[in-house]
Amino acid sequence: MMFWIIKNAECKMMNAEYKGGSLPLASSANAFSATPSPKGLRPLKSPFLILFFFFSLSLYALPSAKEIRDLKVRPRSEIFFTQMENCYALEIDGISPSQVMMELPELPLGTRFISSKKEEFISQSGQRGTLISLWFTFSDSGESRLSPLLVKINGKNHYIEFEPIFVYENPNLISPSLEISFENQKIRSEKDGRKILTVSQGEKIVFTIDLRYGTQILDFKWNIPKDSIFSERERFEFASGNQKITQFTTEKQNLARFEWQILKEGEYALPEITVAALSYNGSKKILSLPGSIRVIVKGKSHRHNESQKEGAGIFESAFEKPSEEVSSEKKSAPTREECETRAAKSRLTFFDKLFSRRFAIFTGGLVSSVPEEKMSANHFEGGVKVKITESAGEWAFIECDEFSGWTKNENIIEIK
Q1: 153 forms bridges with which residues in the sheet?
Q2: Which of 40, 207, 292, 391 is the most buried (most CB within 10 A)?
Q3: pLDDT tens for residues 322-355?
Q4: CA atoms within 13 A on the CB side of 84
Q5: Interatomic CA distance for residues 238 and 209, integer angstroms
Q6: Contact of 95 with 64, CB cutoff 8 Å
């Protein structure tokens, strides 16, 4: 082919300069081998032929065997979607489209071939080559791995692999969803599909609410659960509704962080948190936390009076006086001055200060299940060292071996 191009160019130049007249005969010594020269034709110089030859070769620099082995059929976009046309591309440098043929592999169930296109392209380095584009649709989400593509280059077969790609659900078909993540607790899965979180009575549950596959927040509200202390620790910027996502993303958006303490044992659903969000197709969705997650609250072990009735409520047993207090030889309770002296002599350890742990001397008084004065409460004698796990205004949640619950700040002397 290259020889034909050179000869054709040479003949065109000869015809351009030939002006007519009879052709002179060659000498008798080479009469049968000489080529007649047109009248007035200048001889074709060899440097021109050499330059033209190398220029033609530079149009297509043939790839090496290793370069062909390293070829991949790559996705044209970072994300593929179901029910949409998705494009793969194969770039072969140094090969003209006329030198390339291809044959599709057998496609997996749910994958359908739409069309293909073969064309010439110029790479970033200025080299010519062949670009093959292939369009497919996928009916199912998940990882896609197609069998190698059979490509014939100059009549030789080469099997070129498709890069694997993850196919996501079509954004127009995806509904936004709320997700919850716990900081210090672990969830276990049951055979019936439920997910169980087990905590102790009064234990802090810190969790974060996130939104996935939503473009904007329209409304965000929550209700305080019963028998609980519930507060919003932090609200993130996206939850304000001022931000809007314009391009599809699989990343979740943080909305808020909450703290939850359940004060009665039993089984509980997650708090009522309602979010109104826009989906990718522009529709409004009302979202709530997953109903499959249940919280099991177990009561703390306490010392009980031997005469306590079986099946009594958790708070009755929690706030009963220790058995030694009802003995005939009951010791007299320390005065507040004695408690202040004991608190002054006590010191926090290095690790208490490092982890911000708080302790106090309980001077005696009422201890309740909730931080409210009108709720039923039990009276305990003072003089014991307690741990402060929570504060709420003029109330503090205290714990010790004998009891736990809410008491007024005036009933404790904090250890410094």
Answers
A1: 100, 156
A2: 207
A3: 444 444 444 577 888 888 888 888 888 877 888 7
A4: 15
A5: 12
A6: no
